[in-house]
C-alpha cells in the first residue's frame, strides 16, 4: 500500500448535497459523479445540466423531506458518489516548487468545522487538507454546505496513520507547526520563511501528544485572555491569513 492512502471502505450510501453553492460546485467538478438531481423548476432552469443526470422536479416541501430537517436546500438536492481517493504522495509531488500552505487536522470530527476549514483553505489557496481516515467525517450534505463549494476545490487526503503522514510531509519540505494554547511563541514568531503545514487538533482535546511530537514547532495565536480559545475553523482561517501575508 502506498504511503498516505485512504484504505478502501465499504459504501455507506451515497451522500446528498443541497443548496446552490454545493450543488453548482459539484456539477462543475469533473471528478465528481452526480447520480441524480431533485429540484424546483425555477432552480433547475438556472442550471446547465448534462443530459445524463436524471432530474426529478419537486416542490420545496417535497425537497425538504429528502434532507435533514430545516436544511436550506434552496430548491436543489443532488445524490453523488464520494470523490476518488487521493494519495498523499501525489498531493505533495504536485505542490513541489510553490509556497502554498498545507492544513492537517488531528481527529476533527465535526462536519461543520471540517467544511469551514475547507472553505478557508480554498480562500487562501492551500495545497489541501490531510485528516485521518477513521477520525474525520465522511462527505455529507452538512459538510458540503459548510464548505460552500470548497469540497470540490480543495484536495482532501485521508490517511491511516497521521504521525507517518506528518513524517512524509516533512520529507517534502514542509515546516510542521502545531497550533496549541500552551505554546510559548506565537505563529508570527515561529513560522519563519519555510513552506508551512499547519496542524490543528480537535476542539477541547486539542492535538494528541504523538501529533505534537511530530511537529517542528508549536505556536499560539495572540488572542485576548478574555477568551479561552477559538473555534478550530476560525483558528485555521487566522493561521492561513497570517501565513499568506507574512513578510
TrEMBL record:
Keywords for this protein: Methyltransferase, Transferase
InterPro entries assigned: Alpha/beta_knot_MTases, Ribosomal_eL30-like_sf, rRNA_MeTrfase_TrmH, SpoU_MeTrfase, SpoU_subst-bd, tRNA_m1G_MTases_N
Superkingdom, taxonomy of origin: Bacteria
Molecular-function GO terms, alphabetical: RNA binding; RNA methyltransferase activity
Keyword Methyltransferase belongs to the record: yes
Domain RNA 2-O ribose methyltransferase substrate binding: 16-86
One GO biological process term: RNA processing
Name recorded for this polypeptide: 23S rRNA (Guanosine(2251)-2'-O)-methyltransferase RlmB
Gene source species: Rhizorhabdus wittichii
Gene: rlmB
